[in-house]
Design brief:
By secondary structure, the chain is an alpha/beta fold. It has helices at about 35, 45-65, 85-105, 110-120, 160-170, 180-185, 210-225, 235-260, 275-290, 300, 305-320; strands at about 5-10, 15-20, 25-30, 75-80, 105-110, 130-135, 140-145, 150-155, 265-270, 295. The two termini are about 30 Å apart.
């Protein structure tokens, strides 16, 4: 039995979890900062860092309390090294290093994106080879894995991440932060009457581009405003979401055609909570690849949380992938 205390502070959630054997959540405390950032329309890095400082000690205590554990029950301390906001990451890294030093525990530096993939391990056993689509505010990547911790990027965005595009279009429609979530709700109430381009959908590669799709929506709205015409916000949200989902699903199907040995497909990251994408992928795989198991984490594990970091760190623990106290935040850390 291996118990790992994990810390996640890459953006605007302060989270600490205790995970047993990489799959059992004994505790997963998440302190959200959404209400603090709403008035700014997005995450303000300095504000996020200050909240992490205020909350980290309390969240650690709550994680131990919920798990009915003490530090003596912990085999290792894991923490998100990156990618993320440098100030926010530093709070988690400092807390984890302090715990590891004081209590003489092994320290594990974990990649945030690996955590998103391994969130599915908290609900299902992973079977290899597998493929994952990571979709979040900062990332859109197709990952192929032959085994644990063996990551190969086979496709990625060439400009904006899909979550970033959602947030920018959402703000254009005067939706509150986090705009992506409200965009999804609004998209379920309209019809796709507006023409939104499907960028790179017919390209031979597995890469994505969302900047042009976002710009097309912005131009549509600005041109309508200049002509004094009204835009149906629900219909525009539906049009944008259908275009995004079509691009993502098309690329996924193309990737699976080139990797027919794939046993599981994982939808990962914050945008994995999007109902249009969840439904689109579910239907597409059921129709074209019914033999491939689709894993989508429950909503509580789609966003940033420390449980996913502990799930990924378990395999690093098995491989004795420890780091020393010179560990620093790495905001631009790549998965590969």
């Amino acid at each position: 039995m291996t118990r790992i205390l994990s810390v996640e502070s890459s953006c605007d959630e302060t989270s600490v979890a205790i995970i047993e054997d990489g799959s059992t959540i004994l505790s997963n405390i998440i302190a959200s900062q959404v209400k603090s950032h709403v008035r700014f329309g997005g995450v303000v890095p300095e504000v996020a860092s200050r909240h992490h400082v205020e909350q980290i000690t309390q969240v650690i205590d709550l994680a131990f309390e919920e798990a009915d554990s003490t530090i003596d029950d912990i085999d290792a301390i894991a923490v998100t090294e990156g990618p993320g906001l440098v100030g926010a990451l530093l709070i988690g890294v400092t807390a984890a290093k302090t715990l590891a030093f004081i209590h003489d525990k092994p320290l594990i530096a974990t990649n945030h994106l690996a955590g998103h993939i391994y969130a599915s391990q908290l609900e299902n056993e992973l079977s290899f080879p597998l493929m994952s689509l990571i979709v979040s505010g900062g990332h859109t990547e197709l990952i192929y894995m032959k085994d644990h911790l063996d990551f190969e990027i086979i496709g990625e965005t060439q400009d904006d991440a899909v979550g970033e595009a959602y947030d920018k279009v959402g703000r254009l429609l005067d939706l509150p932060y986090p705009a992506g979530k409200h965009m999804d709700v609004l998209a379920n109430t309209g019809v796709a009457e507006y023409n939104v381009p499907r960028a790179m959908i017919n390209e031979d590669n597995l890469d994505f581009s969302f900047s042009g799709m976002k710009s097309a929506v912005m131009n549509l709205v600005h041109n309508a405003n200049q002509r004094g015409e009204s835009i149906n916000h629900a219909n525009l949200a539906t049009s944008f979401q259908e275009a995004v989902v079509e691009v993502l699903v098309t690329k996924v199907l193309k990737a699976l055609e080139t990797h027919p040995e794939t046993k599981q497909f994982i939808l990962a990251g914050g945008v994995a909570a999007n109902s249009g994408l969840r439904n689109g992928l579910t239907n597409a795989l059921a129709e074209h690849h019914p033999d491939i198991e689709l894993l989508i984490p429950p909503l509580r594990l789609c966003g940033d949380n420390a449980a996913m970091i502990g799930a990924a760190a378990y395999h690093q623990y098995q491989e004795q992938e420890f780091t020393d106290l010179s560990l620093n935040a790495n905001p631009g850390l790549a998965l590969v």
